[in-house]
Design a protein that fits this description.
- Strands 1, 2, 3, 4, 5, 6, 7, 8, 9, 10, 11, 12, 13 and 14 form a 14-stranded antiparallel sheet that branches.
- The chain is mostly beta strands.
């Protein structure tokens, strides 16, 4: 492995045209900007031009500390430097974990700057996201044809055949929306179809019968 070379309950409310839905606060992890970004690739499928700051590889894995992990079948990068700045083009079973969120897509563009993950653009048919809520086993979930992430605002923007669920009793269909990773709020300026089941309860997990288990 090497561095780059040179549930607090549902707080849901029906969306108006310019409204928003709030849910439980999200956990906000911290990551020292000096934590190295590590790169690993599969055997026999790596080529690089250190002077140009480019590389191509298969079975790509990028990690930074315990909270950021990116994997893909294929990856190519440009603008790489010893400060780990650069842009990656990833294809094939792209999986991205960051800030208690997960993105899964067919392809992605990922940008690092200042030794941190700064921007993500994913696309697929469709792409998926989920976000773990603080003090809860529940995850907010969504899908869209395109998902964009900006680290400066901690916002995800989902567009194209979008859907959202709070993992419990709220489902939303809307042309596009934004999701704030800091406070788990969703907002849109589009007309939305909202399904809200106020009395829905999630059954408790069944206790396994050890007498019949294998």
């Amino acid at each position: 492995m090497a561095r780059f070379f040179p549930d607090r309950g549902v707080l849901a409310a029906l969306l108006s045209i310019a409204g928003a839905v709030s849910s439980a606060l999200a956990a906000v992890p911290t990551l020292d900007s000096k934590t190295p970004i590590e790169f690993k690739t599969g055997k026999g499928c790596f080529s690089a031009n250190p002077d140009a700051g480019t590389l191509q590889a298969c079975d790509v894995t990028l990690t930074q500390g315990p909270t950021t992990r990116i994997t893909a079948d294929q990856g190519s990068a440009k603008g790489l430097s010893d400060r780990n700045n650069g842009e990656w083009e990833l294809t094939g079973k792209v999986h991205i974990e960051f800030d208690n969120a997960v993105l899964d897509a067919d392809r992605a563009t990922v940008t690092f700057a200042g030794d941190r993950l700064q921007k993500i653009h994913v696309a697929g048919a469709p792409s998926h996201f989920s976000h773990q809520l603080k003090d809860s086993a529940r995850r907010n979930q969504g899908r869209a044809a395109r998902i964009d992430y900006d680290a400066q605002s901690a916002m995800l923007r989902l567009s194209g055949d979008t859907w959202y669920s709070n993992g419990s009793n709220l489902n939303i269909e809307v042309p596009a929306y934004t999701y704030n990773l800091n406070d788990s709020t969703i907002s849109t300026s589009d007309e939305a179809k909202v399904t809200l089941q106020l009395n829905k309860r999630v059954p408790a997990p069944r206790t396994p019968d050890r007498a019949t288990s294998q």
